[in-house]
Amino acid sequence: MDKARQVRLFDRQAAKYGRRRENATMQSWRSELLSGARGQVLELAVGAGANFRYYPAGVRVIATDFSPRMLTLAREAAKACRMEAEFLLSDIERLEFPDHSFDTIVSTLSFCSYEDPIGVLRKLRRWCKPDGALLFLEHGISRHAIVAAAQRLLNPLLYRTIGCHHTRDIPAMIAEAGIRIESKESHMLKMVHLLRATPGS
């Protein structure tokens, strides 16, 4: 899928994201993960700003997204949470920051959509400070054979309609990029992962 079409697809979904009321389980996962954020934070694919209410006091967030409509909703969410954040309308695959720019890098449900996810992960490893943290809440291929087979069958349709791959092995990709996973929780038939990581040596 070309990038312009992908941006249009997420723009069309923005209103739905803004109205979405997540269940208690997803809220608890976000809260648990983001309690570890500190200092200067980079958030990838901020979407409608669902994470803002869970950040600890005192963090400074740079929030990115390639969808103008998503970024508009994220600004509204930040205002509602009385949170100061900087917003960048940019494709993270084309964005650059100096090495060791961030204390914390956050990605929640974004690695399903990148054209080159390993390339993005290698960027994150460079951008994170050596003593910093990378926090992931991601979905991907299940460890259960029957569920995984269904995901592979449906993946082409889901990617065309919502711009999201469902067959990526997120923990394996993170490790391949040289990022060290410090802790991992897997849920929902091992399709959803909460991962806390460091840049590695």
Automatic annotation (TrEMBL):
CDD domains per record: AdoMet_MTases
Enzyme Commission code: 2.1.1.-
Molecular-function annotations in GO: methyltransferase activity
Entry-linked Pfam families: Methyltransf_11 (PF08241)
The entry's keywords: Methyltransferase, Transferase
Name this protein carries in UniProt: Class I SAM-dependent methyltransferase
InterPro entries: Methyltransf_11 (IPR013216), SAM-dependent_MTases_sf (IPR029063), Thiol_S-MT (IPR052356)
UniProt superkingdom: Bacteria
Matches recorded under Gene3D superfamilies: Vaccinia Virus protein VP39
Domain Methyltransferase type as annotated: residue spans: 42-136
Listed GO biological process terms: methylation
